[in-house]
Amino acid sequence: MLNNKSVLITGGTGSLGKELTKTILKKWPSIKRLVIYSRDEQKQFQMAQEFPESQYPAIRYFIGDVRDLERLKRAFNGIDYVIHAAAMKHVHIAEYNPDECVKTNIGGAENVIKACLSSNVSKVVALSTDKACAPINLYGATKLTSDKLFIAANNIKGNQDIKFSVVRYGNVMGSNGSVIPFFLNKKKEGVLPITDPNMTRFNISLEGGVDMVLHALDQAWGGELFVPKIPSYRILDVAEAIGPECEHVVCGIRPGEKIHEEMITSSDSFTTYDLGKYYVILPQVPNWDLGEYIQHFNAQLVPQGFNYTSGENTEWETVEGLRALIKQHVDESFVI
Q: Is the pTM of this model over 0.90?
């Protein structure tokens, strides 16, 4: 799929960007070019130690901000596929710095779309979050807006051969700033702060997130929002898995946080289809034939009123299962 192609990842030095890089270089050794686009020179310097250009001649490190349209246009020159992973993602930081979040998550999305349309890019996959579903915080609201922009971009492409799609998933296990690395660090102090004892979250590994991005890159017709079928975990089970001997102190939820996350609302059910491994929310007015899409993917319309929430999931991680996953995906030295 990616051999002899040029791929660019915005936010490429983040957790998912690095995992994508590792997977792409391994699976497609004949990739023409892999551009890591981000604004953090220190992270690029560190990533270049792990993936040096001398060993991986296709890789390029490109300093740039998604807020800078001209820089994006320069970076997108000769690029076939774009994976948009750059974002401000910390809920409480976005609440305190709303204008900065809007500039990056909404303005940056607009710039990526404009740069793609002015280049010869043929496929674009934008990363979303469960917090974009029925958002109550600014981060979620900006990501919902970003989702809408990328989906609607299929309506303004004219005769260009380009497809825009979105992938939405829950907490990525072990990603920067997520709860599991936070708890692993706090374990040394003997106290794990619990926001709310009833809190639940969807759980996906970095590998699972990468698989979904690559699936969308390969299979999307343009305008889809892909949602994975993944288990949930209870925050108390995560705490028990990591620090059973630790004291649990309830500190209350932070500004903009939910007790449970949602990835598909009942209002989405009218255009949501079951594809087997994934759900997909289709555009209300697709620019391709819906009947052909349903037949091609054997897509099944979900029941009216269907919703997909972390608190009412049918699949759950266990304490023992979480311990094994943490050792496998986050910290090999973790003692089970």
A: yes
